[in-house]
Amino acid sequence: RSITTLNPETDDIMKDGSLPSSRRSAALEHSTIGVLDIGASKITCFIAELVDGAIDGQDAEIIGVGHQGVSGPTTTGLTGQAAVAAIKDAVAKAQKMAGREPSDWYVAVSGRHLVSRRIAVDLPLADHPVTAEDLQDCYRQGRKLTESEKLRSLHVWQSSYAIDGHEGIHNPLGLTGEMMTSYMLGISACKTAIANLENCLDHCHIKPKGYIAAPYAASLAVLQEEEKSLGAICLDIGANLTGFTLYNDQSLVMSGAVALGSDHITRDIAKVCAYDLRSAERAKTLFGTSFCAPGDESRQVTLASDGGGKQLSVAELAGVIGPRMEEILHLVSRKIREAGLSPEQFNRIVLTGGGSQLQGLSELVETMHGGHVRIGRPLNLFGAPEAVSGTPFSVCAGMIRHVAAERQSRPSLFPAFNRLRDANIPHLAGLNGSNPLRKAAIWLREHF
Question: Taken in order 356, 358, 359, 361, is the CA torsion positive or negative?
Answer without folding.
Answer: negative
